[in-house]
Amino acid sequence: MALHVVHRACELPEEAGRSLSQWDCTELAQQLVAEGMVEAISPQTIQRILAACRLKPWRSHLWLHPRTVRDAAFVQAVHAIADLYTRPLPPSELVLCLDEMTSLQPRHRRAPTRPARPGDPVQLEHEYVRDGALQLFAAFDTRSGEVYAGQFRRKRQVECIRFLEHLDRLIATAITTIHIVCDNVSVHHGSAVRAWLAAHPRFLLHFTPVHCSWMNQVEQWFSVLRRKRLRTVNFADVADLAARIAAFIDQWNDTAHPFRWHRASFDKVLASAEAALPAAA
Predict the structure, then answer these.
(1) Taking the model in full, what pTM does it have?
(2) Domains plus CATH for the chain?
(3) What are the strands of the beta sheet with 147-152, ordered from one edge?
């Protein structure tokens, strides 16, 4: 009977003719009774059987099947980014991770937010007024943790170039090579951007493979921004939102720190990709 429980738990419910998205202990117990495997069985018994096999079919985990083959080019790209993150840098080099947070809305609430009280959490008014949106361009320094930012009303090559020009002005001329790690969207490699890069040779772009945004360290910083500043969105207007984000970035940079990335972070994905490569002749 236990084997049948495990067998069913390792199948999707629709394979057993059930219109369910996932199994739970109650549904599995009912399924065994309907199939005549037992006259009666409790969900608690099902849970003990599944626990012994470390099975939790009521849980799900999102994954993404790659649209492009993880071939030699993929392995080379991952190796290149791992090298940028982990090798010692000479004083003349800088590695920045660049990306955008788009459509940030101020969402002005119809009533003021109430601070926490003993026994009560922060209370945020449910209804809000939409009033425009902001596009945040950010570049994260992988060695110092410092964040460079630009805030715009749109996300186009024009804004990308303006942000690159902002970086060019801020970063000392003693830095002769600025490596930019970013994803492969048209905003980052359109004809206008390529023309600007050709005229500014100290900027070198490195693109992460498709669906590998986890390799871009600025995504980790974006999660910090969301959690600490944008979790409860209540700003008077776009200008207020921009000012609060700028203040958060200034405070972050006062005590900036890098994220700990090691070569081992890439080992698993590299091992699976290299294992899929055809054997050398």
Answers:
(1) 0.78
(2) 2-52 (no CATH), 72-271 (3.30.420.10)
(3) 147-152, 134-141, 93-104, 177-182, 203-207
